[in-house]
């Protein structure tokens, strides 16, 4: 399938599926234009922790309600691409106005999984791709076909680079038309300011790079990134659900990381939902 046909099919399917509809819980601007609300860009149906923890859709939405989150991007990892598609579909069927599905790309040399990814996205419901360096090598011969396919739609790829900024820069340069969301500003709860700085510099160099603010330990680096990149290049998420001290408090604490920054209301709205809504054409 050519890029032209793939994109046309994708956009038509989005329209048929009513992807641009927003939930009644979202506030509206003067004149009736809906605001994006608060959108969590990073929520697990299945985690990559030792227990491979799974969270049902109902539990995720209950956490969202209590934490004040309007919508969440959900995906499963630590499973096959096919199973991640099944899990996300089932979750979104239960809560279509609250949950936004991403699929999990787990390609390998023996099994590229490109057809599964293309089919799921072309149907119009799946809005992006999750990739995790802990389970999938980011070597060119494995990951580049996935990034190329994502750019042909285009849909964003949320990628945990496990701290490898050189690989992050290579991917950004090789695929300028693919929106790349680098998880945790580089590495999960990293206290290495130098590592986070490397990822900010990658984002400064490549316009297709966005930094996901989930599970960021050095909150002052979020403030630095906002000043240097502008608020439009940051997307908020929780990497939840996570029971520390409990799932609701954890989500609220992740929200507070952004709300405590000395940003304008407009910039705060962009980070907490506007940017990811724009990337997903919501």
Question: What does the model show?
Answer:
The protein is an alpha/beta fold and 282 residues long. The protein has one domain (3-11, 34-279): TIM Barrel (Alpha-Beta Barrel), CATH 3.20.20.140. The protein has ten helices and eight strands. The protein has helices at 3-17, 57-67, 81-94, 114-122, 140-152, 165-174, 193-205, 219-229, 247-259, 265-279; strands at residues 39-46, 71-76, 99-104, 128-132, 157-160, 180-182, 209-212, 234-235. An eight-stranded parallel sheet has the order 1-2-3-4-5-6-7-8. Helix 2 crosses helix 9, helix 6 (165-174) runs parallel beside helix 7 and helix 7 runs parallel beside helix 8. The longest helix is centred in the first third of the chain and has 15 residues, at 3-17. 46% of the residues are buried. Mean pLDDT is 91; it is low at 1-6 and 15-30.
């Amino acid at each position: 399938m050519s890029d032209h046909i793939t994109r046309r099919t994708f956009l038509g399917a989005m329209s048929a599926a009513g992807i641009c509809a927003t939930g009644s819980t979202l506030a509206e601007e003067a004149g009736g234009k809906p605001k994006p609300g608060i959108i969590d860009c990073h929520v697990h149906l299945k985690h990559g922790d030792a227990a491979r923890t799974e969270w049902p859709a109902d539990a995720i939405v209950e956490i969202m309600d209590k934490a004040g989150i309007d919508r969440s991007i959900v995906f499963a990892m630590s499973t096959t691409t096919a199973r991640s598609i099944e899990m996300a579909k089932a979750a979104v069927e239960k809560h279509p106005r609250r949950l936004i599905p991403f699929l999990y790309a787990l390609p390998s040399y023996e099994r590229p999984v490109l057809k599964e990814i293309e089919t799921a996205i072309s149907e119009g419901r799946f809005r992006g791709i999750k990739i995790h360096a802990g389970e999938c090598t980011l070597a060119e011969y494995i990951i580049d076909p996935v990034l190329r396919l994502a750019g042909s739609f285009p849909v964003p790829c949320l990628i945990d680079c496990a701290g490898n900024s050189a690989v992050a820069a290579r991917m950004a340069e090789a695929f300028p038309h693919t929106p790349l969301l680098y998880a945790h500003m580089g590495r999960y709860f990293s206290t290495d300011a130098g590592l986070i700085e490397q990822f900010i510099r990658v984002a400064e160099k490549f316009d297709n790079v966005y930094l996901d603010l989930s599970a960021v330990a050095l909150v002052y680096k979020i403030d630095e990134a906002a000043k240097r990149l502008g608020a439009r290049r940051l997307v908020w998420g929780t990497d939840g659900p996570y029971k520390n001290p409990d799932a609701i408090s954890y989500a609220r604490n992740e929200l507070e990381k952004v709300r405590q920054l000395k940003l304008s209301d407009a910039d705060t709205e962009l980070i907490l939902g506007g940017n990811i809504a724009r990337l997903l054409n919501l």
